[in-house]
Amino acid sequence: MDLDARYPDGVSGILLTHFHADHVQGLFHLRWGPGVPVPVWCPADSEGCADLFKHPGCLRFQPQAPFTVVDLGEGLTATALPLAHSKPTFGWLFADNERRIAYCTDTRGFPPATAQALRDAACTAIVLDSTYASDHPAPTGHNHVALAVDLLVASATTRGVLTHIGHECQRAIDERRENIPDHIVVANDGLVI
To answer: What is the pLDDT of residues 119-158, one digit of tens each?
Structure first.
């Protein structure tokens, strides 16, 4: 399917990580956009968020099974990677003939099958949740910096990018209280991978 031909001036599809409000807020307005149906590839979650399923507007939710490969066209695919969070959550592994880049936010560690898939993919880069500073007491649903670094090192990725940074985490990074290897950077506006 040539998505660009159907959506020359707008969104041609959405890869959704999960249905927490901070990840779907934009969909509430987008659903009332032009009448052209927009596919939303997402984890299966019977609760969704608020009334998105009841009143989807132009959005066409397409729940995916873990490790399903979505063909995005022009040789680009996205594989749904299950993550460890409080709701069904996917990371997405983007691949073309040259690169593999994984986007994994809102997770605490990796389920074993996801960790193996990332190692097998030999990722060019992994963008990974690192919400908390390493000294945060009992983090849940998200990584702290030390765990994120360990996961990135174990994945053998060429480049790691920490994202979903909380303000206490950013302060710990700025004050150099975190040990981050040179091949791992903190995401910032305008960063190109």
So the answer is: 999 999 999 999 999 999 888 999 999 999 999 999 999 9
Q: CA 101 → CA 91, 127, 138, distances in Å?
A: 11, 8, 29
- Which DSSP category does 123 fall into? -
Rounded Cα gap, residues 118 and 2, in angstroms = 28
* CA pair distance 44, 184, nearest whole angstrom: 32
**DSSP letter string, 140-160:** -SS-BHHHHHHHHHHHT-SEE
Residue 24 three-state SS: helix
Local structure of residue 45 (DSSP, 8 states): -
∠ CA(15), CA(39), CA(22), 5° rounding? 45
Amino acid 192 reads V
Determine the topology of domain 65-193 in CATH.
Metallo-beta-lactamase; Chain A (3.60.15)
Q: Name the pLDDT band for 11 (thresholds 50, 70, 90).
A: confident
The pLDDT value recorded for residue 24 is 96
Mean of pLDDT values over 20-49: 91
Per-domain boundaries in the chain: 1-64, 65-193
> Which neighbouring-strand residues pair with 94?
78, 101
